[in-house]
Structures are given as C-alpha cells and as structure tokens.
C-alpha cells in the first residue's frame, strides 16, 4: 500500500470532493480516482459511497480516515522537526487582503525566508468575504483578512488594526476648513468593496447626512481607488497606512473632520484541525513576532 494513496484519500475525505483534492494535490481527477481504486483494491473494501455527488465515506472509509489523519499529522511533524535540513519544499497557499499586501506582507515574506528556507508561497489577493469562503472550503491554508472569522473550525490570531481616514486632492480638500458629515456625504465616496465591513460602516455613518442617495464608488482594488481619488473623482475612505505615501507627497490631503471612523482589524486565520495546523500556528506566531516591534514604532500605520 502506497502512502501517497492514503494521502489522496485523506484530502478527498477532508475537502469533500475528488475535484477539490485534485486541485489541492495538483493532479487530474482521473489520477485521483485511479489512486483510490488502487487503495480500495489493496484494502479489499470500498471507501466512498458510490452514486452520490459528494465524496461520502462508507463505514470502512470512516474507519480508515482515523489512520490517514494520524499519518498526515505524523508526516507534518517530521517535516517540522527536520525543517532546518530537509530538502522537501512545502507550498503554503496564503490568502491576503490588499491592505496587508500594500503594507507589511512583502517585508514579512522576506523576513520569513530567513527562518523557513524550504517553504514557498502561493499568494492569492482577494476580498475578506472571498478569502473567508476559500479558507472554510480549504482552498487556502492561511488567510490575512479582516477578522476574526466566527467559525468553530477556524483559529484566529489578532495581528493589527488600521485607522480609516477621509482624504482627497488638495483642491477638493481645501473647499472646507472642517468637513462636517453633510459635506462629506454629498461627495462621491471611494472605498472598499460594497459587501465589506468598512463599506457598510461608512454607509451607516454618512447616509443620514444627505437627502440624496449616497454616492459610493467601491472596489476590491485599493490601487484603483487611490488613482481615482488622485484624479479628483471624490473623497477616498481608506486606511491611512495604505495612502501614507500619497499624503506625504501632497497628492492627497487628509480631511479635517469630526467624523470618527471605526478602525479595521486583521487576523491570521486558518483551519484549526488538520495536518498543517501546527505549521500555520508557527507562521502566525512569526507574523506577530515580526509585527510587534514595527507596530510599536508605527512603521506600517502612519
């Protein structure tokens, strides 16, 4: 019996489908099916219920899963124990919000490369909602997003918070010495995607202060929002850390306003159970260790 077939069985059972396991293992579905066929022949037992859409385990499949899970955990323990000398490279599927990518993630990956020589990253940049869904579906291993995620299966580590501000090109910013809520509410607001927490909070703050429908241009691309703001398309509502260079250069000016926008908080989140959870814990702790002295110095926040 080949270990790779047990590995394949584990991921089908964990992810709930042959297709998901094929994506995880970078194999074709026929190759996945062939491995399971060989495993069932070796054990003399059917492991999955036939003629059902999802990968439903038989009673023998459930019995085997206990052993497969032990094997996967042991495999990860061995890789961790020999991480300093091993020639086996692990690929971690990381999902990150653009706020994190625009601030500390590139520096962190450079820092991490000094400690984890045999780890590579498959990076996905997306909105928090999409990253949450991908994490729950186990399409990614670790997510840096606006958290925490309220799921029993997910572990969250608090990382950092960012202050949201309103900013605009100087010509627009200087229209008012102090921007009252109604003045901002009657401008076009450029901010996070419509289904995100910051976008909803901004709508709740400003909608009562205009007789018109609040004009909001939203996007998953912070870069696009910044370019629109610099072009004079409206007032941007973004983390100060993300637009600090534009503020320093004078391309954008922070508005003087009495409105206090809530901060946005980010977590490192991952699936609690599973063979890679100990590695995800180590990586999350590495992020915290990296960020702590830098946050004290406000390197990524102002």
Secondary structure: elements and pairs:
Elements: H1 3-15, H2 18-25, H3 29-43, H4 59-81, E1 90-96, H5 98-101, H6 105-112, E2 119-125, H7 128-136, E3 142-146, E4 154-162, E5 164-168, H8 170-173, H9 181-185, E6 189-192, H10 197-206, E7 216-219, H11 222-230, E8 235-239, H12 244-249, E9 253-254, E10 264-271, H13 277-296
Parallel strand pairs: 1-2, 1-3, 6-7, 6-8
Antiparallel strand pairs: 3-10, 4-10, 5-8, 5-9
Helix pairs in contact: 1-2, 1-3, 1-4, 2-3
Describe, in plain words, how this protein is organized in 3D.
The protein contains 13 helices and 10 strands. By secondary structure, it is α/β, with parallel strands linked by helices. The chain folds into 3 domains: 3-81, Orthogonal Bundle (Arc Repressor Mutant, subunit A); 90-161 and 265-296, D-Maltodextrin-Binding Protein, domain 2; 164-261, D-Maltodextrin-Binding Protein, domain 2, CATH 3.40.190.10. The strands form 2 sheets. It has a 5-stranded mixed β-sheet with strand order 2-1-3-10-4, with helices on both faces. A 5-stranded mixed β-sheet has the order 7-6-8-5-9, sandwiched between helices.
What overall geometry do the principal axes of the alpha carbons give? Answer: elongated
Percentage of residues in strands: 15-25%
Number of strands: 10
**Which fold name is given in CATH as the topology of the largest domain?**
D-Maltodextrin-Binding Protein, domain 2
CATH superfamily of the largest domain: Periplasmic binding protein-like II
SSE order, as H and E? Answer: HHHHEHHEHEEEHHEHEHEHEEH
Oligomer class: single chain
Note the main sheet. 5 strands, mixed
Q: How much helical structure, as a percent, in the residues?
A: 40-55%
Average residue pLDDT: 88
Query: CATH first level of the largest domain: which class?
Result: Alpha Beta
Structural classification = alpha/beta
Number of domains: 3
Strand order of the largest sheet: 2-1-3-10-4
Number of DSSP helices?
13
Rg: 24 Å
Give start-end ranges of low-pLDDT stretches: none
